[in-house]
Write a structure and sequence with these properties.
mainly alpha
């Protein structure tokens, strides 16, 4: 696990060093760092996982009671043909409960994704400050 973090921080450092930020005010620098972090595979994986989890949650919130068409045919002494339509009614409010649960799940998914993004940002900033400190020590 620790070697994975070292590899991830090393890759982040390479990405951040390859594209040198233009000298500008702090907002431009912050946008540059955010763009570099967004380009990382870890950030893209967080986004993809969030989209998949949100889609799964939406699917679970969909109504389960769809109408069913029944067609029957029997040929004997008398030919019998039947056509029927059946619809289950949700008297107990299961659909409403499923939607409420999906809303809570989606909030939870968004919070987990934001926490993972914050962790990536913290790792990136820690790598940048470590690099700047090492560069300053080398210059001194």
């Amino acid at each position: 696990m620790e070697s994975n973090r070292v590899v991830r921080l090393g890759a982040l450092l390479v990405v951040l060093l390859c594209a040198t930020p233009a000298r500008a005010d702090d907002r431009d620098w912050a946008r540059w760092v955010q763009r570099q972090i967004s380009a990382l595979p870890t950030s893209q994986a967080i986004d993809a996982n969030q989209q998949q989890a949100l889609a799964d949650s939406d699917a679970r919130a969909q109504p389960r009671y769809n109408p069913a068409l029944n067609i029957g045919y029997e040929e004997s002494a008398d030919t019998t043909r039947t056509v029927g339509l059946s619809q289950t009614l949700d008297w107990s409010g299961k659909a409403r409960a499923a939607r409420s649960l999906a809303d809570i799940e989606q909030q939870q998914i968004r919070l987990r994704s934001e926490r993972a993004r914050a962790r990536v940002r913290a790792d990136a900033l820690q790598a940048l400050t470590g690099f700047a400190a090492a560069r300053d020590r080398l210059a001194a």
